[in-house]
């Protein structure tokens, strides 16, 4: 595939012809069990690709079937001096991979929970390291028969989020289940570690969209707090929450809700209050809304919100670059009336053969002023976003590769790339790092980014979450058998008789 470097900013009028998208009417790649791989797959994945300032160093398959590996979300944890990637899948359980030596990733365990989506978050509670793992739709017969289903007595019609104890990464343990009848497409842990916000991401199936909030101060006995109502906006593919990001202080939540982005005051996380709303007709499907704050040259600060458009819910594509990144200024009082700075797209404008081409899971690294993002068939991308501190633009401004304060500084793509998420846990002073992709087709990929030309950054190093004191396995890991009796009645109240249709 051609890799031309387009480094220009233009107006909507000049760029409309290149970026006009033929948008399917339904998010077919996300219905039922969630995403499906749309790229072709041989018995073995491709061993070589093309990129800039990046190289591929390792691939790890989740099984030996030769079929699509169904990789989804990815998170990281450092425990007792070793680094681990937690790789979600659509039906193969949580893959726990030792990445202490990035060029030689080694799977140390699989949390056997055969559910769809597998979004992951990690947090600590006293002497435990915990992770959440989502069941979108229903767990189904296979999920109920897998270990998490047996541990927690799940019914095939159950949907929601499983909490897992990973204090000993090689021995993950089921802790509890948070039933959400409309499913957990994604969920987000409040920075306090005391509350979980659930995003069901349903298509237009209800005029009463809501975020389900759970109190998880006692992880073994989570308690539902409320279904927080959000506005019904009957445009795009729906108005339910798809994903939520908190600011570091936990006082704001940014809700990516398909046809809208909501800004909530979460000073009291049990009782959020809506303070802002963005409805942008140029965004087909709001997938993620993440804030970042910069220090300007004059010493003042500027806060921006980056919104990803997962065009058509990751349906098969006929063109690239698909949906891009839309940037809003939310500094100070603008948080209640955000001002659009412009939109950014990867520098690939070409016909597409049906494999998905659109923005997906991103991660921003505020101190390093960098971003990583997965772009499905267009692989993995690295951006220098330091220019956002002073970038100027308008709702009509479009950037391809470089503009509105962002420039692509690295990428890598395989012929069979179908990458869902791309993140890193460590960054060196020269900006170089090993990055980890979780791919619907390929499984687990490790990449090496060679660094930022002419710029140094503060290093990023993970915090070790090893328990502060020693505890026996029996005391440290709450047995599922002790949890089930207290939760059995709640589970009975949340049985479901049909599967649901979801957006991305």
UniProtKB/TrEMBL annotation:
Keyword field: Membrane, Signal, Transmembrane, Transmembrane helix
InterPro entries in the cross-refs: LVIVD, Quinoprotein_ADH-like_sf, WD40/YVTN_repeat-like_dom_sf
Organism domain of life: Bacteria
TM helices/strands, residue ranges: 475-493
Gene3D superfamilies, per the entry: YVTN repeat-like/Quinoprotein amine dehydrogenase
Residues making up the signal peptide according to the UniProt record: 1-29
Protein name, entry field: LVIVD repeat-containing protein
